[in-house]
Amino acid sequence: MSEQVTARISHPHQPGWFDLVSVMIESMLNNAGEEAEGFLIDVGASLAARYPLAEARTVQDLEREMNLQLARFNWGFAQLQPQENAILIQHHALPQGDTNVDAERWQLALSAILSGVYAQWLQAQGGSAAVPVTFEKLDGGTLHYRYQ
After folding, report:
1. DSSP output for 25-71
2. pLDDT digits (tens, 9 = 90+) for 24-50
3. The organism sits in which domain of life (predicted)?
């Protein structure tokens, strides 16, 4: 199999774009340190504003609408668990980075982006900007968030 065909199979994104994003995230993490997280959260919120959700009447509707948008980007899927005064969000099947960015750093960068995405989507559905989406943990490739 040629290198070009192998690259397309293991790297389903348009050539160059994923590399550009990977280099930008790695550079941001190296140069901005802790400030990178706030920037990446803002990036996620801006992205979510560009791809708004249809109105959701139930948590099940909300989960479906989120997953329809996440599927557009091949970014995995979310499961929502309503609590008495919170919503727990589990994000599964996070896209893998390349070998140039440490896997844990890649996951933490994407967790910040997704924090912004989820916060913006929830606010657009009538949630309060004062209620944060908090990243709680990374557990075996699953990101855990709390909206409370």
Report:
1. HHHHHHHHTTHHHHHHHHHHHHHHHHSPPPP-SSHHHHHHHHHHHHH
2. 888 888 898 778 999 999 999 999 999
3. Bacteria
The three-class DSSP label of residue 136 is strand
Q: Pairing between strand 133-139 and 77-82?
A: unpaired
The two tokens of residue 40 are 């990446």
Number of Cβ within a 10 Å radius of residue 84: 5
Closest CA to 40 of 51, 27, 52, 55: 27
Query: For the chain, what are the domain ranges?
Result: 75-100+121-141
